[in-house]
Specification:
Bound molecules: S-adenosylmethionine
Structural class: alpha/beta
Shape: elongated
Distance between the termini: 38 Å
Helix content: 25-40%
Number of strands: 26
Largest sheet: 9 strands, mixed
Strand order of the largest sheet: 16-6-7-5-2-17-18-1-19
């Protein structure tokens, strides 16, 4: 039985139906923010430009409408909501009115209350947002998680420079960190010291080449006991000081007993005392660079860059967060074997960080596109075997399920069906992409040769012969290698005849012919039948199918869990990525 879960659906519904009370150790959420635009997913085209194909991944639901009014009503009247939450929401509505922001906060309040329910008493939650709503969200978090459980407002410098007219350049996102109770887990994470600091302060080296800095063995003030007495002719009292010995170090050397002078002897025998060359110089303690405890991490994070435009980590999902960011959060607030939940998981950054760090995970997203992306990201990063270690819940598993999805939400149906064949959805039904629902790109010639494409038309409704003719026309217009019609209905005989008359694509690389027009029903796809095209026989690792950008392969569950193949701190790009929240 798989321990990890990927849910397709609205997180409110999934949380209420599937996630048990106090079952999660760490929550990270990065919800989209309200805007006038739809929430888009843009893919980079193969020539690197932004795709004309904008996929509406998530419709703006934060309108003040009946749904928002019903959510508000539930929050202020239902006894399932803490009184403080209902009070805060009433104040927001008084202050903000019936606006999109109030609608957004209603949506968030419902979800935060559920997230509080599923979090263990030892757990923590990190809410990623930006200054547009962070002040309201902090108040809401205070109401749900209680003021005394607030831990940090983390400022993440998400870009290098950002010009803005008539105000200072907005550079940061906000991550609100709350615990569920005072019993929360904290790993006391540390970061490495700056190499420049080591260079500057640890100038000396012992015979074995270990770098150290000499630090004082005395403290200010005169003492009349042993610590004020001379050692080897050096009298600290004469300079108004006393011996102050490093307790931890002595303990590690097994020297707990004896007089101060005896313990100084022990330190000297262990080679821990630095004697200056000059006569009567004061002995000092050798502090070795390799024994330094890392630095405590502050609440301003300037060392985690956004994903550089050309980084292998970048998958083309515009709000994708760097894995280093999630790595820090997961390491700080969870242990191996703990459960990490991301209820707005997008292209799965938290899921991948959790997997890499040997945590269990639960990801939820409302679009099939995100679920498809995460599945390929997991496969590309950890290999095919990962598929047996997680369960996907909420995807159609039978023909009636698929029919229901098609009736409820044709877009989601399309995205799901295209996901079954690994194709990339295309939204526009007009202009350049008229008649195309999805594309799949592949290479079947020597490196550097042209990228070829398969184009898809997905039909949930009644099929007619014109659908086949239209597809044939689009294949010719686009000079596509293959055109595929995916349908819920069984194609008619004339449609099959039309497909058969379209001939073949002759692959130069594979020296094989593939039917130019292909018909596939959803039922066939669900039984495992696939399209016929050159990349269909090549293992994913060969990179013949180039439809989605591949995530870099990882040494899964490596000993160190180091993210060697990802951007390193300090690798800040000079470009100016758009704010990932503002204007979403
Ligand atoms: C800002 S993105 C998250 C990006 C993510 N942190 C990453 O690194 O890829 C927000 C995601 O939340 C999803 N979403 C929005 N509303 C949702 C809901 N009610 N339930 C589940 N997912 C939702 C969107 O589809 C989108 O993929």
């Amino acid at each position: 039985m798989a321990d990890n879960f990927l849910y397709y659906g609205d997180n409110l519904d999934v949380l209420r139906r599937h996630i048990k009370e106090e079952s999660v150790d760490l929550i990270y959420l990065d919800p989209p923010f309200n805007s006038d635009q739809n929430y888009n997913v843009l893919f980079a085209e193969h020539n690197g430009s932004r795709s004309s194909a904008q996929i509406r991944a998530f419709e703006d639901t934060w309108r003040w409408d009946q749904v928002a009014a019903a959510a508000y009503d539930e929050i202020v009247t239902s006894t399932n909501y803490p009184q403080k939450v209902s009070q805060v929401m009433q104040s927001f509505r008084n202050f903000l009115g019936d606006t999109d922001m109030t609608a957004y906060l209603c949506m968030m309040a419902q979800r935060l209350v559920e997230l509080h329910r599923v979090l263990k008493p030892t757990g923590s939650i990190y809410l990623h947002c930006d200054p547009t709503a962070s002040h309201y969200l902090k108040t809401l978090m205070d109401a749900v998680f209680r003021v005394e459980n607030f831990c940090n407002e983390i400022i993440w410098k998400r870009t290098f420079a950002h010009g803005s007219s008539k105000r200072f350049g907005p550079l940061h996102d906000v991550i609100l960190f709350y615990a569920k109770s005072e019993r929360f887990f904290w790993s006391n994470p540390r970061s490495d010291h700056d190499p420049e600091y080591i260079e500057k302060h640890f100038k000396l080296a012992d015979e074995s080449g270990r770098r150290f800095q000499p630090i004082s063995l005395t403290g200010a003030g005169i003492r009349h006991g042993e610590s004020g007495k001379p050692w080897r002719g050096i009298d600290p009292t004469s300079v108004g000081r006393h011996w102050a010995l490093p307790g931890k170090l002595l303990q590690s050397l097994g020297v707990a007993l004896g007089t101060v002078q005896e313990r100084l002897d022990a330190l000297d025998s262990a080679g821990m005392i630095y004697w200056p060359a000059k006569e009567h110089g004061t002995p000092r303690l050798k502090q070795y660079a390799d024994q330094l405890e890392g630095q405590a991490i502050p609440d301003i994070w300037i060392d985690i860059p956004p994903i550089p435009a050309q980084a292998t980590e970048r998958l083309g999902f515009p709000t994708q967060k760097p894995e280093l960011l999630l790595d820090r959060i997961v390491r700080s607030s969870s242990n191996e074997g703990d459960v990490v939940l991301d209820p707005f998981c997008g292209c799965g950054t938290a899921v991948v960080a959790a997997e890499r760090l040997k945590r269990h995970w639960i990801g939820i997203d409302i679009t099939h596109l995100a679920i498809t992306l995460i599945k390929s990201r997991l496969r590309d990063t950890f290999g095919e075997a990962i598929r047996s270690e997680y369960q996907v819940v909420g995807e159609p598993v039978s023909l009636p399920d698929a029919q229901t999805l098609a009736a409820e939400d044709p877009y989601q149906f399309q995205w799901w069906a295209l996901g079954l064949v690994g194709a990339r959805p295309v939204e526009q039904k007009k202009g350049a992409d008229k008649g195309i629902d999805g594309r799949l790109y592949f290479h079947d010639e020597a490196a550097g040769a042209k990228t070829k494409q398969v184009i898809f038309s997905v039909k949930a409704g009644h099929l007619t012969a014109s659908h086949m003719r239209d597809l044939r026309g689009v294949v010719e217009r686009e000079s596509a290698a293959v055109g595929v019609l995916i349908s819920l209905e069984e194609p008619t005989q004339p449609m099959r005849a039309e497909a058969a008359s379209a001939g073949f694509y002759d692959s130069p690389g594979w020296n094989r012919k593939y039917p130019r027009l292909q018909l596939l029903t959803v039922a066939e796809l669900m039984q495992g039948k696939g399209i016929e095209y050159p990349a269909s026989r090549a293992p994913a690792s060969q990179g013949v199918d180039v439809t989605f950008k591949k995530a870099p392969k990882a040494a899964r569950r490596g000993k160190t869990g180091k993210l060697a193949d990802l951007a390193e701190p300090g690798d800040m790009p000079q470009s100016e990525p758009e704010s990932e929240h503002a204007g979403e």
